[in-house]
Amino acid sequence: MTTIQLAHGHDTVELRVPDTATILKPTEAPAGVFGADAVRSALESPIGTPSLEELVRARSPRRVAITISDITRAVPNKVFLPPILETLERAGIPDDAIVIVVGTGMHRPSTPAEHEILVGRDVLARYRVVDHRADDPATLVTVSDDPYVAVSREFAEAEFRIVTGFIEPHFMAGFSGGRKGVCPALVDLATIQRFHGYETLASASAREGLLEGNPCHEIASEVARTVGVDFLFNVAINRNKQIVGIYCGDLFEAHERGCRDVMRWNGAKIDRRYDIVVTSGGGAPLDHTFYQTVKGLCMALPALHTGSTLLIVSSCYEQLGSDEYVALMREYGARPAEFISRIARDAGRTGKDQWEYQMQCRVIDRIGVENILFVSDDLSPEYQAIAAVTPVAGPGTATERAQSALDRLLAERPDASVAVIPDGPYTMLLE
């Protein structure tokens, strides 16, 4: 047997798997780790634009907005924000002319403690940090009437706009980063609902690793062009949340270069589908809710055939997700086919967070709820019962229950082919 570790919240689950199991992980690793000096160098020699300092000096903006990801994303803001802010200061921008906007999309607002975690105490003390509020019309400004798009007023009305974030495989938009720092991060509810609408996600091209022809990518790109982004700063990170690639400058050129690298560093080639697949929700902060855990389910889809069993471990230490998502799963968690029929019939109306269940239904459609085995130490039994999975319940820790479930599967199917995805949703399976 071989021992493998799967992230589970802030800890790990260690499992014994057969020596014959295929470990699906990237074969190419990035060359090294970058710190603040590399950030400064990248800002001086960006992709497709003059340096950040040159751009700012030429524009002499009265207000600068910088958007960052919220607490659900492990973006190393505290490494790259200080060099960006130093550059703005050197270009003559005073502290009170700068606002840092947390791109919450439709996620909950940040707490004061999370603001400090996101940017660091020193930055928080010097600069204004605000959350985007998609549900508050007073904080939005219309940038397009057809289709209707409204965006964070703090960002849209700034005279120089910087988008930051990181690039990773994204289960519906191809890759994160780039244009997603505007849409869905900073837009109104209706635009987010269009980005996540039934028809958008019904496309087979709304998937990981694909940009061309991906309707999510196309919607987000059009919104970002309409709003206007003056400078992109994206990074690629390793599992230790360290920077391994920097892509800054032109919104699209820099992002596309980063996507090509992330494809190599996060892609694992597969030439078959497996009887048993073991994966995770990605660990903290990604697996804080079941809503986010759906990414781990969907990213495993290329490895699954119609008779496969998927075993996933995920903490979900903040439980299921939003109130709307909980209500949706209470109503339809036991009736996925009825749910898909209903949202297809009402395609013009998109309920908050319905898109996550729509994506989960791709996995359900292939292997069935009974073959999605779910292990968690933190998600309440009440919520596990409505999450359209088969909970692995009983005594013992997540590790013990997951091992017991795997041992049972192997005893029932001694000749089963087994695959393990140690990094869960961070690994893109390339067919």
Question: Mind explaining what this structure looks like?
Answer:
The chain has 431 residues and is of the alpha/beta class. The protein has two domains: 2-24 and 270-430, 2-enoyl-CoA Hydratase, Chain A, domain 1, CATH 3.90.226.30; 36-265, LarA, N-terminal domain (Rossmann fold), CATH 3.40.50. The protein is 35% helix and 23% strand. The chain contains 16 helices and 20 strands. The protein has helices at 36-44, 52-59, 77-90, 112-119, 121-126, 153-156, 189-195, 198-202, 215-227, 251-266, 290-299, 323-332, 336-345, 354-367, 381-384, 398-412; strands at residues 2-8, 11-17, 22-23, 64-69, 98-103, 128-131, 140-145, 148-152, 160-166, 169-170, 174-175, 231-237, 243-249, 267-269, 274-280, 304-313, 372-375, 390-391, 418-420, 428-430. The strands form six sheets. It has a six-stranded parallel β-sheet. Strands 6-5-4-9-12-13 form a six-stranded mixed β-sheet, sandwiched between helices. The protein has a two-stranded antiparallel sheet with strand order 1-2. A hairpin with a 5-residue loop joins strand 12 (231-237) and strand 13 (243-249). The two termini are 27 Å apart. 52% of the residues are buried. The model has no long low-confidence stretch (mean pLDDT 96).
Question: Which descriptors would you attach to this protein?
Answer:
16 helices, 2 domains, alpha/beta, 431 residues, globular
Short description:
By secondary structure, the protein is α/β, with parallel strands linked by helices. Helix content is 35%, strand content 23%.
